[in-house]
TrEMBL record:
Tree of life domain: Bacteria
GO biological process terms held by the UniProt record: lipid A biosynthetic process
Any one GO cellular component localisation term in the record: membrane
Keywords: Glycosyltransferase, Lipid A biosynthesis, Lipid biosynthesis, Lipid metabolism, Transferase
InterPro entries documented for this protein: Glyco_trans_19 (IPR003835)
Gene name of this polypeptide: lpxB
Chain segments annotated as coiled-coil in the UniProt record: none
EC category name: transferase
Molecular function via GO: lipid-A-disaccharide synthase activity; phospholipid binding
Gene3D superfamilies associated with the record: Glycogen Phosphorylase B
Cross-referenced Pfam families: LpxB (PF02684)
Protein name per UniProt: Lipid-A-disaccharide synthase
Keyword Transferase: yes
């Protein structure tokens, strides 16, 4: 029986880890799992030692208040490794924490596979050199990740991005439009302000203001706001209350992929949604706001020119992005008009997004990560014989 310790931090990492665990269980029946994660890993039968998803933060400074807790968790997991003697550490995202876990694994002689590895191509190549030094096998999801980690001497496998397996609408265009009460000819703009309270509070108001300006010039457009979950429905309803009386604004729980698939354009928070939109080749305008301290520190440390993942992958600005005080209704609306009123520009963006999708690899990323974990287990077992 092989025992795997899985360490994931935020909700997204918990979900990505759970998908890999699900595949591993189908491939092998002699595996057991313990670790740190959330409800998705718990559903897959992982013995959860601590759920850190409640500590999710945005930005460097915001994370400092949890620093003591992070070190307590590292000490706890280190003790568990001594007691449980796992055969492998599977580290998913949560880069600052999991870099330290990789070092602990190397010290204790436990092989490490790292999925959604520290973004060395953004925050500095030293991260890649550290992970290489600690012997972590890197399951790379981005093409630029491969180059940086190989240069650092790490064992890298390009698995591609798992979004390619999951980004697909579950309703046809006709079904979705009937669901919302929209005509087939109604043009749609999607509003995706993010799934966290802070993002909604900072990004939804300027998006609504942009919608007002767009509606004045293009009254035929319908605006659809898909919530990731009902958790913040009351908050969103309070923000859009006045606008809902004067705009053709539709609020729905879920159905983000249907919105993207039917939209002429989306206004979205920087993050995973931008890659999801790229997979569906929908033009977008990216918005990003954080605390001033985090923004200036990030600007000082970051090694890339852009915040939007499609632009980072393309190596140039293929979709507009607005940061901090530039996230205004006027700026978002102006960028929207430049796309909506210029067919050639819209098609150019769609072509560039198709290239981004191609750069993300082929479908089957989760399967490839599971195979990498099993190979690593077998190699380690063979080495012990």
């Amino acid at each position: 029986m092989f025992k795997i310790m899985v360490v994931a931090g935020e909700v997204s990492g918990d979900m990505q880890a759970a998908r890999v665990i699900r595949v591993l269980k189908k491939k092998r029946s002699d595996l057991s799992f313990i670790g740190m994660g959330g409800k998705e890993m718990l559903k897959e039968g992982v013995k959860i030692l601590f759920d850190p998803t409640q500590l999710s933060t945005i930005g460097f400074v915001e994370a400092l208040k949890h620093l003591r807790k992070f070190y307590q968790l590292l000490d706890m997991l280190s003790r568990v490794i001594d007691e449980e003697k796992p055969d492998l550490l599977f580290l998913v995202d949560y880069s600052g924490f999991n870099m330290k876990m990789a070092k602990i694994g190397q010290k204790k002689g436990v092989p490490v596979v790292n999925y959604f590895s520290p973004s060395a191509w953004v925050w500095g190549e030293w991260r890649a050199y550290k992970m290489a030094k600690w012997g972590a096998k890197i399951a790379a999801v981005f093409p630029m990740e491969v180059d940086v980690y190989k240069k650092a001497g790490a064992d890298v496998t390009f698995v591609g991005h798992p979004l390619l397996d999951f980004v697909s609408p579950t309703m046809s265009s006709e079904e979705f439009r009937n669901f919302l009460g929209l005509k087939e000819t109604d043009p749609i703009i999607g509003l995706l302000p993010g799934s966290r309270k802070g993002e909604i509070l900072s990004l939804l108001p300027p998006m609504i203001e942009a919608a007002r300006l767009i509606h004045k010039r293009m009254p035929q457009i319908r605006f659809v706001l898909p919530l990731a979950s009902p958790v913040f429905k009351d908050l969103v309803t309070s923000i859009i209350k006045d606008a809902a009386n004067e705009l053709p604004l539709y609020l729905t729980i879920g159905h983000a992929y249907e919105v993207m698939d039917n939209a002429e354009l989306i206004l979205c928070a920087s993050g995973t949604a931008t890659l999801e939109a790229a997979c569906l080749k929908v033009p977008m305008i990216i918005a990003y706001k954080t605390s001033l301290s985090t923004y200036f520190l990030g600007k000082l440390l970051a090694k890339v020119k852009f915040v939007g993942l499609p632009n980072i992958i393309a190596g140039k600005e293929i979709v507009p992005e607005f940061l901090q005080r530039n996230v205004t209704g006027e700026n978002l609306a102006r960028a929207a008009f430049e796309i909506l009123e210029n067919r050639a520009k819209k098609e150019e963006i769609e072509d560039e997004l198709a290239k981004v999708r191609t750069a993300l690899g082929a479908k089957g990323a989760v399967e490839r990560v599971a195979d990498l974990i099993l190979r690593t287990l077998e190699e380690n077992t063979a080495g012990e014989k």
